[in-house]
From TrEMBL:
Residue ranges of the TM segments: 18-38, 268-290, 366-389
Subcellular location: Cell membrane
InterPro entries, sorted: ABC3_permease_C (IPR003838), Lipoprotein-release_system (IPR051447), MacB_PCD (IPR025857)
A biological process from GO: lipoprotein localization to outer membrane
Family of this protein: Belongs to the ABC-4 integral membrane protein family. LolC/E subfamily.
Protein name, per record: MacB-like periplasmic core domain containing protein
Amino acid sequence: MMFRLAWRNLWRNPRRTVVILTAVCVGVFGMIFIAALMQGVGDQMVRNSIATLVGSLQVHHRGYREDPVVENTMTDPAEPAAALAAVLPPGARWSRRVRVNAVAGNARHSAGVTLVGIEPDREGGVSFIGSAVVEGRPLGPGDPYGIIVGRALVEKFETRIGRKLVLMSQAADRDIASRAFTIVGVFRAELAATEKQFVFVSLAAAQEMLKVDKGVSEIAVLLPDGADPGPTADALKAALPERYEIHTWRELLPMLTAYIDMNEGFTVVWYLVVFIAMGFGIVNTLLMAVFERMREFGLLRALGMKPGGIVRGVLIESALLLILGTAAGNGAAFLSVAALAENGINLSAFAAGVEYAGMPRVIYPAFSWTSVLEANLTVWVLGLAVSLYPALKASGITPVAAMARV
């Protein structure tokens, strides 16, 4: 009975009801869609960063993170390798690397780069470089003079496949080590900065050039999708001696971690801002409806209806408005995200700006059911809370006061 009365009262003024339904729908759509965009940006930044030589976690010699020089290499990589074999869950992959700062030069140009010696057969399952070569060929195991460089570096150095590139860095004996490599492949990355920063040679070639024997700078581990690196890192810390350090990607990428934390806080603020705008509309609409029906409420009180019954009736009208509005808003948000799931939002026209911010060039919105639930709960709970004021206003009318109103 109460629901039927509330439903009929809702459509006494269809224009006003449609306006407030539109406001609720747009508000819920904005909450969910913006949250999906931010979630998508965050997820892509995490995936790109993990794939760009970070992995889920890394093992280093103690002190390497503070001073990444060749002296801080792990001289006995077999020891952490044995611990990894005992600790890692099924499906996890790992790869050893030598990573040092170096200077790359040819006849025309020179620039600082990061020299990465990789195991080509293992690196493919750990980082982006396994599938990023778009010209030429990948490195072969033990390739002594082959080097893979980024497309942006090729353009900057005005070079091409088959040309020489000389790398210089400090060797383990503190002398300057240099070697001429032949460009055998060109890779593409999400960010042009990555293409300019990294050059890849085989692990054996890097070890020979830097005179580190079998030493490696880091061991990168990629865990199966969705796996929390924290417990694995704790198990490795317990299994390895003190001279090793284990860091998860959150510790290796503090800026990205801060962005994700800030993103969560911004989502809450965004929800509140949208709801405040929406809440004023709900209160205003219900107050108008209540003041128009004061004589009706007075008649109901005269017929014996308790004030609680009037409050319940107004709240049911508000609940119906919120249910219809949130349903439409959820539907619009789901359809919008589904429409963008394949091609995303292409920001290539603003490539320089988005790269400076570390964002991907194409954004794919991603739903977080937690965000969807939070948005709906925010609207429902706060919507009913702000509806209490007009409901109490209506319940406070007396039959005499109602009949005296013009």
